[in-house]
């Protein structure tokens, strides 16, 4: 494969900021729509009718559940707890486990064609490299390894001195690859993790399950503001992401979605609705 710097430099990149948009294709811009639009974009990027695309998205008061979470033995009780907290629950169309989002958590999708021959490992490492570049003015201590006690733990948890502030996932659709990351920018990551901890406690109780669910320790999670002793906002980091792509020699294309993407989006959104039928009644 090409090195990481080559993969994010000297190309045309479509930059889409959905962080403040109320609608996507006249549909409410919630996490259901976000996962559907990433699938649509990954399809068109894979078909090479759209350029490499970076999409920024933010969803307040949302818990994103992985497919294994939908099999928790007392899921309904956990969802009621989430509802009582004022959170909206979504089951995403991929693996992984629960992640808590709010207005201080920035999500970025880097959507690439599959012809770079990126392995799953390569996709994760590309995003890891990008985040190291993004925050190199603040630190050179960002590491990637599983943080025990964090929510949605994995080999590409991003942390500083053992405190996790971001997690990376991947979604592969036909010939397109969406490498997705959430970054805790501000607010209390301890409070976010405490909610997820209680969600698992209530949803699993003392049942023995085939799938291993994390025993969450909120103290191993933090925001970049807590770790860097800064006061960054989501908007500031979004601008920094955009500038980094420019600094790498990229030309940023207009923020424009394609008609073909709307057609794919409609189908993918319907699939997401079907996946989420069982939990729809628990959302506020």
TrEMBL record:
Catalyzes the amidotransfer (transamidation) of the octanoyl moiety from octanoyl-GcvH to the lipoyl domain of the E2 subunit of lipoate-dependent enzymes. Its EC number is 2.3.1.204. Keywords: Acyltransferase, Transferase. Belongs to the octanoyltransferase LipL family. This is Octanoyl-[GcvH]:protein N-octanoyltransferase. The active site is at residue 152. It comes from Pseudogracilibacillus auburnensis. GO terms for molecular function: lipoyl(octanoyl) transferase activity. Residues 48-232 form the BPL/LPL catalytic domain. The lineage of its organism: Bacteria, Bacillati, Bacillota, Bacilli, Bacillales. It comes from the Bacteria. One of its GO terms (biological process) is lipoate biosynthetic process. It is an enzyme of class 2 (transferase).
């Amino acid at each position: 494969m090409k090195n990481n710097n080559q993969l994010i430099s000297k190309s045309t990149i479509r930059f889409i900021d959905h962080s403040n948009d109320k609608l996507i294709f006249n549909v409410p811009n919630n996490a259901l729509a976000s996962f559907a639009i990433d699938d649509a974009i990954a399809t068109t990027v894979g078909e090479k009718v759209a350029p490499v695309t970076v999409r920024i998205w933010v969803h307040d008061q949302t818990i994103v559940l992985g497919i294994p979470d939908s099999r928790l033995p007392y899921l309904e009780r956990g969802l009621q707890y989430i509802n009582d907290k004022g959170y909206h629950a979504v089951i995403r169309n991929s693996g992984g486990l629960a992640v808590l989002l709010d207005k201080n958590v920035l999500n970025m999708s880097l959507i690439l064609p599959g012809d770079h021959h990126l392995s799953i490992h390569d996709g994760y490492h590309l995003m890891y490299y990008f985040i190291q570049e993004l925050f190199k003015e603040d630190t050179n201590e960002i590491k990637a390894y599983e943080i025990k006690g964090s929510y949605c733990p994995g080999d590409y948890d991003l942390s500083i001195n053992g405190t996790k502030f971001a997690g990376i996932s991947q979604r592969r659709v036909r010939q397109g690859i969406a490498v997705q990351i959430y970054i805790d920018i501000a607010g209390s990551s301890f409070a976010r993790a405490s909610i997820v901890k209680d969600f698992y406690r209530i949803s699993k109780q003392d049942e023995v399950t085939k799938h291993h669910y994390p025993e969450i320790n909120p103290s191993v999670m933090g925001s970049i503001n807590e770790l860097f002793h800064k006061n960054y906002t989501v908007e500031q980091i979004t601008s920094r992401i955009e500038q980094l792509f420019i600094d790498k020699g990229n030309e940023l294309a207009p923020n424009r979605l394609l008609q073909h993407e709307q057609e794919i989006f409609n189908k993918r959104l319907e699939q997401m609705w079907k996946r989420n039928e069982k939990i729809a009644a628990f959302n506020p």
